[in-house]
Amino acid sequence: MSAFTSVALIANPASRRGARLQARAVAAFARAGVRCELLLTERPGHAAELARGCDGRHEAVFVLGGDGTVMEVAGALAYSGVPVGVLAGGTGNLLARAVGIPLGIERAIAALLGGTRLRIDLGRLEGGRRFAVAAGVGIDARMVACTPGWMKRRLGVLAYALVATRASLGAVLGRERFTARITVDGETIERRAIAVMVANFGAVLADRITLGPGIEGDDGVLDVCVFSPRTLGDALRIMRRMMAKDFGSDDCLLYRSGRRIRVDTDPVGPTQADGELLGETPFEVEVEPRAVELLVPRAADRSGASGRSRVGN
Predict the structure, then answer these.
(1) Which residues have a Cβ under 8 Å from the Cβ of 87 and sit 6 or more positions away?
(2) Helices and strands (H and E) in the chain: how many
(3) In this structure, are residues 119 and 96 in contact, taking their beta carbons and an 8 Å threshold?
(4) What is the assigned CATH class of domain 130-288?
(5) Residue 303 has what pLDDT?
(6) Which CATH number is associated with domain 6-114?
(7) What is the DSSP letter of 9?
(8) For 188-205, how does the pLDDT look when each residue is reduced to its tens digit (9 = 90+)?
(9) pTM of the model
(10) Residue 196 in contact with residue 181, Cβ under 8 Å?
(11) Helix (H, G, I), strand (E, B) or coil at 157
């Protein structure tokens, strides 16, 4: 049974699945006895405007689109107390996967209407842009930049996995490493690396891969993950460790946690946040603790949630 009587649904018809799923979403809310106001985005930034315009009119705001649309809504509603329900409509659907929201639209709506609430941290970049899962430079940014649109439309998240694998092999075999200078709460570390990620959630791809130890989405800090394989054997070992959640001592892995982080690289490289290209290094980020209240499935209904199932009040 739903805890809500009226919700807004902000949908991005330009996202991978948004246009064909919006009618099914509205029908699913109707079957649950929940009034739903459908609001369609028309341009970048419009989702944030629509979310702010919902103030006081609805008990919750749902968003159907890719991770960029999700973060527009989450950022606009940060610290508002309005719960956000994420419906997977894009390619990566990183946040939905991170908190165990089903990817099927009807299952997701049922799980969220009957679910619970979780307050999560956000990362805030210079200029005010926010991310929920991770930002980075290196392999992950090249993956975002180099995955063609036709491949994303046909293969979904598998397209990212294929391009990331190719980029990883190219970085190791081609020695495409860079010098990373990372400052975490005043401490500066310098390493050669193929990827530096500032992570809020540790698990990706429905918990199949874990970036590092103890990375939680609601602990008030962000976690820097530096990956420095020198050979193909190193890269394979790192991948096995991330899949097995084995993070013992390894000179190809470095982890730090903090509230304010700056990443410089030589040479400069492209950066991404939650699957959206940002520009080039350097970038700076600070944590916004427990900024957004997410609707999440109850623990028994989750499939691949990462992080704790802490209810935010």
Answers:
(1) 9, 21, 25, 62, 63, 64, 96, 101, 105, 108, 109
(2) 9, 18
(3) no
(4) mainly beta
(5) 45
(6) 3.40.50.10330
(7) E
(8) 999 999 999 999 998 776
(9) 0.83
(10) no
(11) helix
